[in-house]
């Protein structure tokens, strides 16, 4: 027991090159600066947590690399160190969460430390993450997110994705690039599961432009309105048939409960869907609670992505083993591998649109630490002690 304490927490920043640029309503991304947290323990374990930031805060606040690196270095890592020094070894997730609970926000930054500790706990237990998390589904249907600048690009990416066997397409839309995109995809793929993501590109003056989407039997429209809004999204739900999915505006179980209260008031819980991005809700512990609470209320969920490396994607796929999660997630790139170079020894592969979870320990993958070190810079290391009593 006393040899399981954390001995250090290091913060890395990796430079990752997307093979194909990714375009959303808020910008195009190609080179990503991506923080990782490495935790080491006295019993010789090393845990790795990815923080799937974007380079700037165009998606939402505190989801950008500079803010996450600052939160980790200035507040979160010192707070974990101080807590362990004062209270003894941090050996479980609840205690880790307690060690930085006083820090408001910083959900992405916190999630990286939590993921690294999950990796350590799974290694120590000799179990896959899906088992640690109570998952039982081993075959995970895989969806893709298509971010193209033109209809031709979108159709090319869709063709590639369908060719790779993926059975669910999500496409990025914005004002002037919406109904015609959905129509082009629906015409070409009459039966595929199809959904759209606006990343908060519409407002109260123009969201009604989305009403014609109702004719394309879409699974959902993701975050059409403001990134920080839940209330107005519930109000427009009564005026459109396609279910509304929240992404940006959900940070916690409490936010999900707020949404459920609002949608229940309009009698439309079946038209509320929640995208669970573990980093956006501070980690997998909160994600599990959200998945279970939504499922218990008839609200469907799915696992969102943030262009993670295979390491981050494998965590998300393990989480998708929970049967409470009903819809396919954003787990694979429509164009094959996401990055020019990834940080694991074996690529993730889905077969005919289904990823099969194995019995491998933790994420079920092996980190290629040589590649990790080559792509990354270690920015900060904190040595942890604790007071033995
Ligand atoms: O809104 O879901 C989103 C990527 C970056 C930021 C926000 C989003 C996305 C995606 C990509 O849609 C999902 C993926 O394939 O990882
Ligand atoms: Mg989204």
The radius of gyration is 20 Å
User: Helix count, per DSSP?
Assistant: 11
| pLDDT < 50 stretches | none
How many strands? 13
Shape: globular
**Terminal CA distance:** 13 Å
What is the SS-derived class?
alpha/beta
Element pattern in H and E:
EEEHHHHEHEHEEHEHEHEHEEHE
Tell me the helix content: 25-40%
- Could you say which small molecules are bound to this protein? 2-succinylbenzoate, magnesium ion
Summarize the structure.
The protein has helices spanning 65-87, 93-99, 107-125, 129-132, 151-163, 179-188, 231-237, 253-265, 284-296, 310-319, 369-375; strands at 6-24, 27-41, 46-50, 139-146, 168-172, 193-197, 221-222, 244-246, 272-276, 300-303, 329-332, 354-356, 376-383. The strands form 2 sheets. Strands 4, 5, 6, 7, 8, 9, 10, 11 and 12 form a 9-stranded mixed β-sheet that branches. Helices cover 32% and strands 22% of the residues.
Could you describe the 3D structure shown?
The structure is a single chain. Strand 2 and strand 3 form a beta hairpin. The chain contains eleven helices and 13 strands. Strands 4, 5, 6, 7, 8, 9, 10, 11 and 12 form a nine-stranded mixed β-sheet that branches. It has a four-stranded antiparallel β-sheet with strand order 3-2-1-13. The protein has helices at residues 65-87, 93-99, 107-125, 129-132, 151-163, 179-188, 231-237, 253-265, 284-296, 310-319, 369-375, and strands spanning 6-24, 27-41, 46-50, 139-146, 168-172, 193-197, 221-222, 244-246, 272-276, 300-303, 329-332, 354-356, 376-383. 32% of the residues lie in helices and 22% in strands. With 389 residues, the protein is of the alpha/beta class. 2-succinylbenzoate binds at residues 54, 59, 145, 197, 199, 247, 304-307, 330.
